[in-house]
Amino acid sequence: MATRQELSDFLAATERRAYKQAIFAVHDEQAALDIVQDSMMKLTANYAGRPAEELPLLFQRILQNTIRDFYRRQKIRTLWTTLFSAFTPKDQDKNQEEFDILETLQVKQDSNDPEAQIEKTQLIALIEESLQILPPRQREAFILRYWEEMSLAETAIIMKCSEGSVKTHCSRAAHSLATILKAKGVEL
């Protein structure tokens, strides 16, 4: 059983990565924060008594399910918005907030060479832009496998699919990212 301190340490260590996953999935800063908070609350309320080594998989599953729930709710809202849009005036302004993914990026300061730091920042920004172009399942598989460093089995459990499907999603994501980055002048 995980102690309160182990649970607290796990949540603190997972917070930033979970936020990035949510932001990549929903493209909305406030919604991503809500998703992470809801996921952490669900883990704490329902699984606090589980062993500490089970927490990462449980949390990833909860996070991915919460993201899917967000999309389901958005689909319903979109349906109702579309149905009632006929009643809104045609000249009404639609004010949409833009999210800047670069604000969420934290670059490690590996060297004191400013040129290397700029190149690294630019490369990470290109990768993050490219990730947003990927289909949701490919993006999810890629992030879980390569950024979260989850095993094939763990990723399959979280995504509720077979290990073969995870391999396919990861392969397609890697090929798509390579193509996108090559088109932008990045040699891999």
Question: What would you say this structure looks like, in words?
Answer:
The chain has 2 domains: 4-85, Rna Polymerase Sigma Factor, Chain: A; 114-183, Winged helix-like DNA-binding domain superfamily/Winged helix DNA-binding domain (Arc Repressor Mutant, subunit A, Orthogonal Bundle). Helix content is 71%, strand content 0%. Mean pLDDT is 81; it is low at 80-110. The protein has 188 residues and is mainly α. The protein has 7 helices and no strands.
Provide a brief overview of the structure:
This protein is an all-alpha fold and 188 residues long.
List the helices and strands and how they pair.
Blueprint: H1 4-26, H2 29-47, H3 55-84, H4 114-133, H5 136-147, H6 152-159, H7 163-183
Shape: globular
Termini Cα gap = 44 Å
Number of helices: 7
Strand content: under 5%
What percent of residues adopt helix (DSSP H or I)?
Answer: over 70%
Number of strands: 0
Total tally of structural domains:
2
* Structure classification: mainly alpha
Order of helices and strands: HHHHHHH
Query: Radius of gyration, Cα only, in angstroms?
Result: 19 Å
Low-confidence stretches: 80-110
